[in-house]
Protein 1
Amino acid sequence: MGVRRAVKGVGEFLIEAVGETVGEAILNLLACVLLGGLALIAYLSWSFSPRLTIAGAGLLGLFLAHGAWQTFRGPAKGRRRGLAALTAAGFALTAGTALFLLFYATGCDCL
């Protein structure tokens, strides 16, 4: 009985280790693809029109700043509506993507 339990434990450990390794590889690949896509978008927009790229980056910065302000300020009466909810959600999505890239793309060998 002891041998079967040991073999079962080793098998579960191996399945978990392989699953974690495959998951990490998929996340690293996804981060590298996302980082490459962002670099390609920046390159193509700059080659199309540097002025529009700077204007778009400024508008995106204002959008994200408003979202951060809505997210971190004191709770307002009622719930957020319209532009405030949109900018807060955009800020949360961008912050999550930035953290994902920070943790996975920095360990990527494609850099």
Protein 2
Amino acid sequence: MRTRTSTRAIAAGGFAAAALMFASSPAFAGTDASVYTTNHAGSGAFHTSGSVERIQVCDEKAGDGLYPVVHLKYGGKEHFSPNIGDGPDCENFKINIAEGTSVKVRIYLSRPGSDTHKYHASSWHSAKA
């Protein structure tokens, strides 16, 4: 009888620990994406962190007359990162996308004053907000 009671107590404690583990974990975890232009002159990333996502854009080859643009597609919408110029720094931008939304991410290079030309575009990468 004593063994049976101890077994029940251990089993109940195990279930309580499992319930606590699942209750304390986040309901959903997004997935990030990192992208590079085909000539590695630009890099970008889409990072998820709770309710606000972040886009990072870096010009890996400053002074070449081109600047990188991160392009997102999600929920029937499109978003383009702002022109960061042709300098050596990275820029970060926040964007709010509904949690669990599928996001397609790519990067390309553009010339100032020309929104129609996309140079060295990466393929589309999948992420989730």
Protein 3
Amino acid sequence: MEDGMLMEILKEMQKKYQCISEIERITRDIGDALSRNDRTSVQILLGMRQDEMDKADINERNIMHLLSYMAPGEADQIARWMNGEQENIPDHPFFRKLAEKCFSTRLLLKRTIELDRHISIRLAGKDSYYQTLP
């Protein structure tokens, strides 16, 4: 596999990680603003969070586009890493780094979703989006 292609995918994963990290920070700020009953700040923060979500979606599309140029087996393996698999990582610096970044991004996203779930349930109770999920 071409190292240049792996480097581009890794760059996009890093950008996505930074977006998810910012989404987590903003989500914490939303919780703080809600605790203070500061509706104006909540509205501003929700807009900021949506902007970061949109950027993360662009990064995801860019990664999928890059994967479309790779051999199917290699693209499938990277997609599995993106979905949390941590097995069969070749002993290659780019593969290791990419798998680590995918894993870190998934952990950060999981933490952010749990934070958002807590805020939503606290605010909406039984009407929370999360209460309707299995």
